[in-house]
Q: What sequence folds into this?
């Protein structure tokens, strides 16, 4: 469904992501883990066509048969928020502070989903993330966890084939984290969406992902099923990550 092949990201001639290759199959939940600065977010941004101007990507990212690295901005923006959706760490960056959240959800529903009026669909989406009463609220009136649930409702609005989450719960309280993770899991399961989940938190990937990719200094150094990577890590770096985490090293 999405195939990343030999992806590199450069700042000038300095490679920040080097020769990264992986696939995410339809409906699959894959985790991208590694320490801060290992290149996880840049990999996701390159896949989404959201790299800042000073960076450039080489290699290949094929999504539903289409080469994204050479796609026009117009094609990319048609894909984003449609077949390809993303949830970032900081929900305020994805929301318009001046618009009621119900309207923001309604506006994200694309025309082809116009069976029911967008307002009703938006309300149903908000209910599905446990927010039946926030339609007329502004983002600042909500808690961080509620805002992230609104962002999730927007990301899921058009039943994306692939949802990319970049540290979606890192900024939230621990109790709220679990709730948002569950909503992500239910949301992708109901739609058979694939999930690429970026985090440095191994307890989170253990709960969410079927397969893991481990990044170090811009490269993928290990890959396997979640169970394999967390119980029989092959790379020294993965062992260190496990030792440094709260996970019971099995
Ligand atoms: N616009 C940029 N220009 C130059 N270097 C950058 C730029 N953006 C990121 N980098 C560098 O690229 C490397 C990878 O960054 P990236 O944000 O992908 O890491 P990460 O694994 O997602 O870490 P974090 O969890 O902290 O977000 C880092 O060393 C970072 O400093």
A:
């Amino acid at each position: 469904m999405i195939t990343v092949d030999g992806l590199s990201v450069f700042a000038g001639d300095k490679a920040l992501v080097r020769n990264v290759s992986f696939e995410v199959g339809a409906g699959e939940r894959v985790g991208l883990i590694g320490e801060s600065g290992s290149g996880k977010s840049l990999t996701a941004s390159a896949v989404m066509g959201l790299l800042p101007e000073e960076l450039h990507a080489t290699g290949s990212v094929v999504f539903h048969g289409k080469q994204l690295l050479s796609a026009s901005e117009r094609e990319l923006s048609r894909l984003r928020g449609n077949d390809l959706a993303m949830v970032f760490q900081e929900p305020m960056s994805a929301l318009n502070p001046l618009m009621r959240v119900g309207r923001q959800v309604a506006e994200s529903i694309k025309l082809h989903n116009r069976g029911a009026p967008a307002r009703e669909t938006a309300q149903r989406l908000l209910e599905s993330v446990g927010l039946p009463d926030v339609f007329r609220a502004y983002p600042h009136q909500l808690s961080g966890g509620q805002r992230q649930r609104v962002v999730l409702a927007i990301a899921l609005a058009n039943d994306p084939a692939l949802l990319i989450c970049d540290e979606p719960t890192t900024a939230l309280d621990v109790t709220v984290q679990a709730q948002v993770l569950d909503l992500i899991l239910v949301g992708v399961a109901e739609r058979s969406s694939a999930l690429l989940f970026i985090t440095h938190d191994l307890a989170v990937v253990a709960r969410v992902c079927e397969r893991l990719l481990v990044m170090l200094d811009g490269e993928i150094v290990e890959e396997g099923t979640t169970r394999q990577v967390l119980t029989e890590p092959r790379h020294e770096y993965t062992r260190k990550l496990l030792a440094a985490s709260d996970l019971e090293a099995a």
The chain has one domain: 2-244. Residues 11, 16, 34, 36-42, 52, 54-55, 200 surround adenosine-5'-triphosphate (CB under 6 Å). The chain has a mean pLDDT of 93.
